[in-house]
């Protein structure tokens, strides 16, 4: 019987989440460096002020455009307190173009996210026919 003299160390939950390699903090810094979707803030991109004792944060139009572009394929669904999503672009198109969707006898209206999205609005802002 062969026994390895090096004891295997139990992997932490953090290590499992980060790929199971037991990566050091330096390795993580390298792997989480610049991604394709990263952008750098420049002077004037973020402005903070205080209004009636409450801090406000304002973003430049350039930052808003970048953030809105990232939200382009987002669909907002509120259903039974659960998060509902899609796995690929075909699922996304199916959700938007097929239907009508009926959940527990109630119609579910699905629409893409827009800059003017208001979760308190009881009806869709547009209808696809």
Layout of helices and strands, plus pairs?
Elements lengths: L12 H5 L7 H7 L14 E6 L2 E6 L1 H10 L18 H9 L3 E3 L2 E3 L21
Antiparallel strand pairs: 1-2, 3-4
Question: TL;DR of this structure?
Answer:
This protein is an alpha+beta fold and 129 residues long. The chain has 4 helices and 4 strands; from the N terminus they run ααββααββ.
What are the defining features of this structure?
129 residues, 24% helix, 4 helices, alpha+beta
Description:
Residues 89-121 form the DUF4283 domain. InterPro entries: DUF4283 (IPR025558). This protein is an alpha+beta fold and 129 residues long. Among the domains are: 36-70, no CATH class; 74-122, no CATH class. The protein has four helices and four strands, in the order H-H-E-E-H-H-E-E. It has a two-stranded antiparallel sheet with strand order 1-2. Strands 3-4 form a two-stranded antiparallel sheet. Mean pLDDT is 69; it is low at 1-8 and 22-33.
């Amino acid at each position: 019987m062969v026994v390895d003299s090096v004891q295997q160390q139990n992997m932490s939950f953090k290590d499992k989440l980060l790929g199971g390699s037991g990566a050091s903090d330096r390795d993580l810094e390298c792997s989480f460096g610049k991604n394709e979707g990263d952008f750098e803030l420049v002077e004037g991109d973020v402005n903070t002020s205080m209004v009636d004792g409450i801090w406000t944060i304002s973003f430049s139009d350039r930052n808003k455009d970048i953030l809105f572009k990232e939200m382009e394929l987002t669909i907002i669904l509120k259903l039974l307190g659960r998060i509902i999503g899609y796995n690929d672009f075909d699922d996304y198109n199916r959700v938007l173009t097929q239907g009508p969707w009926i959940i527990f006898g109630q119609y579910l209206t699905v629409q893409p996210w827009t800059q003017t999205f208001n979760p308190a609005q009881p009806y869709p802002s547009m209808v696809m026919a």
